[in-house]
Amino acid sequence: MTIETILFATEYYPPFTPGGAEWTHALWADALARHGRRVVVVTPNYGAARREEHDGVTVHRVSFPLGLAGSGEAGWLAHRQPLFHLYFAWHIARMARRERVDLIHVQNRGALLGAWLAARAHRLPIVVTVRDVGLICPIGACTLFEPWTTFDCTTAQYLRRCVPFYLRHYAPGEGPLRRVAHWARLVAGWLDHGLLNAALRRVDGVIGVSAGILAPYPERLIPAARRRVVASLPPPEVTAAGPLPDVAEGARTRERLKIPAGPLVLYAGKHSLGKGTAVLVRALDAIRAAVPGVRFAFAGKGEMALPEAPDVHALGRLPQATLFGLYRAADVVVVPSIWPEPLSRVLLESMRFGRAVVATAVGGSPEAVEDGVTGLLVPKNDAAALAAAITALLRDPERRTRMGAAAAARAATVFDESRLAPSLLDAYESLAARPA
Fold it and tell me: 5-131+201-233+417-432 falls under which CATH superfamily?
């Protein structure tokens, strides 16, 4: 069948963007519209216009009892309980009928059950994008300590190992009442997780942003015949940027942020266990000893405190333009993730700005970084290997320049809209035609 009108179902959509994924939804909607399709977005309204329309994209924001700032996030259970699923299903079904859509594309896990119910009501094909491990486990803690390659957690595993690990690392030192509240929330999340799994097993297809992020999902949840891989689109500001770094802009950004001269290592993203922040912190001393005068810039926030040292610059959350300036200033960009990184936005952005990167060989990172060509890959949770790779690049400017140019060329071709949009449309066509 020909897919002409696509409905995006998502619990967040710009201007409400708790993370980078929500901007990606809007990028995809605009890209599909440029490729001759009509996109209808159905999302809760946290305080914006009820309806917007531009260039082939129509956004319907349905009434919701919570208001949010642009980067705010609704409570943990706001989208993880039956009333929301039924309410959202009714709105999606109503808009699907009114807009005569051909396919429903679920962009976030919170929208999955409601979208599946609506798709069943109208006999529409439905696909879901997987950008993380949230449909394996509500908190994903097992990916941080289990050596498995495929995760199919049981209730016993979740309650006996994942929840205690989560409370120990993300809610330490809290009183009994707070711990009871955490337990209640996490158990409720697991019950909702069972409903989402039931829907996931019955969708027509699952689109992963990398093969690496689909690999941990068991065949029971996502059969091989229903899997497709379509990478994320880079932001337009990166796409429009020149392939080589603007040295002057990098120097100006560095001056504004008061980062003194010296080789610069950049970490951008949430400071967390899963992102590997602690591994990089453990590697700092070895890098300092090998490269005198080195500086470390940490952009972003999170639950982990950074060491207080003159060469460690904790910059907090930065405007995108400032972060882009930091990419231009950095000598090496590091993505030391432990959890299965889906397809790191930081990797795509830094590659497009011609930066050599050091990343861990997890999830989709090996699909972005060509080891030894556009950057270096190291084992996860290995501070010594991480330090050695960063040191090797800091000591070899010519190699950094060569890798940066190769990274920019790869980002401009492999992760380009003209290549990715037809891939997504092909996935729609093949999955919608799949026998039930």
Answer: Glycogen Phosphorylase B; (3.40.50.2000)
